[in-house]
Amino acid sequence: MEQLELQLFDYNEWANKQIFNRLKELPKNVYRQEIQSVFTSISNVLAHVYLSDLGWLEVFSGKSMNYALELAVQQKGETESKGIDELEAMFFKLSERYKLFLRQKGNLAKPLEIENPSGDLMKTSVSELVTHVVNHGTYHRGNITAMLRQMGYVSVGTDYGLYLFLRERENS
Q1: Nearest CA to 156 among 32, 23, 46, 41?
Q2: What is the b/e burial string over 19-57, where b = at least 16 CB atoms within 10 angstroms of the residue's CB?
Q3: Could you give the angle at which helices 126-150 and 84-104 cross, rounded to 10 degrees?
């Protein structure tokens, strides 16, 4: 069986691709349309997810949580200004970095000690945090679905069960 962390990340990549493909089918203004919701626009949701994913990969690679947060603050405006095609390319380049890291990492269950911004230590593992990264993306794809419905558009299926079904059908 494929390493679970890689399978989860493949799912995350697939689900993001579903969202990007759906957004590209809609009128161009939908991506940046201001809306009263959890985020002010879909572009801001996607920038947030990208910066969070980037931050966690930095933490997995040995950087501090403070470094990851500073990086997100530094890159927020630039990331939010990206067009949909540019941001999609950034997502999938980052996804390739994640998969390379996950393939090269010896023991993903090895305990990690991560200092959070308040100075407290969190004891966890890359395995557990990959689950967090994927869940975080799933949560915000749900935000995007709700925002699209609020604007009068239908979203697209991104459930893990659908991913597994389609993957199995592809491999049959």
Answers
A1: 23
A2: bbebbeebeeebbebebebebebbbbbbbbbbbbbbbbb
A3: 160
Type of residue found at 138: T
Residues 148 and 37: their CA atoms lie apart, in Å, by 11
Residue 160 in tokens: 């893990």
Structure confidence by residue, pLDDT tens digits, 73-108 = 999 999 999 999 999 999 999 999 998 988 886 667
Q: What is the pLDDT of residues 123-140, one digit of tens each?
A: 988 888 999 999 999 999
Q: Domain map of the chain by residue range?
A: 4-171
What global pTM score does this model have?
0.94
Q: Where are the alpha helices (DSSP H) in the chain?
A: 4-25, 42-60, 65-80, 84-104, 126-150, 160-171
Does domain 4-171 correspond to CATH entry 1.20.120.450?
A: yes
Among 150, 15, 145, 8, which Cα is nearest to 92's? 15
Residues 133, 102 contacting (CB under 8 angstroms): no
How far apart (Å, rounded) are the C-alpha atoms in residues 50 and 137?
9
Q: Which of 40, 60, 73 is nearest to 150 (CA)?
A: 40
